[in-house]
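Tutorial handout. Part one gives the primary structure; part two gives the three-dimensional structure as tokens.
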Amino acid sequence: MEILEYTPDFLPSLTEFYNELTSDVPHCYHVKEDEFALAMNSVVTGEYRRGGEEHNAERIFIAKSDDTVKAFAHTVLSLKSENEEEDVGFVRFLGYERGARNAGQAALEKAEEYLKACDVSRIFAFSQNDRYRFFHFEHAYLSDALDHVQGLLGYNGYRRSDGEVFLDWENYEVTPMKASIPITLNVEWKDGQGQRPNIHIDAYLDDKKVGECDTLSCGEFSSHPDVQDWLHTVWLGIEEEFQGQGLGRYLLEYTLQEMHNVGYRHAAISTNWENYRALLFYSNCGYRVVDWTYEYEKVLADV
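Part two.
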């Protein structure tokens, strides 16, 4: 077993490995080498920005056996800033071939060894802000479909610190009912990276904003042709005093209808793993749960 650091020569084999690893992950689509290279670029250049703050010391550790990639761990160091009290390590991505547990363990240990040498106090794995753009949809953490990776993290002392549940609705059909109060809607279309546009809708009662819905083309996350018919609602909110009057459902269904009119056929939505109110609402609108995803954290007590 060899543990090697990433160089551009690994791009073809690592892209192939990633595509095979994520083939059963809901809403994960085949990625091309040039797209995968974008996620690797900061390893080569040494420059990486997370949430508007520059990060340092990004590395990828690859476990090879018989000249074949068996696992890799992608790490980055977040230095403390005005808004952070400590240096923190991140595992952007960790994957290993099922059955090759030793390779996964070796890659993870090498990543931890590297981050510990940087004197970090905690390590987060699969944080939202560090996810590969093409891994799942926005807000995704580590998918349940990669249960063997979840098991490896748990075995090594990582604990779930956050989560997001994903629901989808293939071939959806909606007919919005009339709003319960006389609201007006402001609809804004925006072009993005998908073949079809994104949409943002604000709801007003007189001059007061009472709700909003923000929905993206899933082409924002992947260039694969199969994803272009999918939309992902990333935010739906109703002001507290106007909740319980059916405005959320009206606004969501109006959005779905508008998106259907421009060619979308399938819908996805997500919410925090502990937001059972939203889960109850979405699952009774027509969506069905397809994936649970989790962020993991390990506190390094010896640092």
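Part three, for discussion. Helices lie at 11-21, 33-45, 101-117, 147-155, 247-261, 276-283. The longest strand covers residues 53-65.
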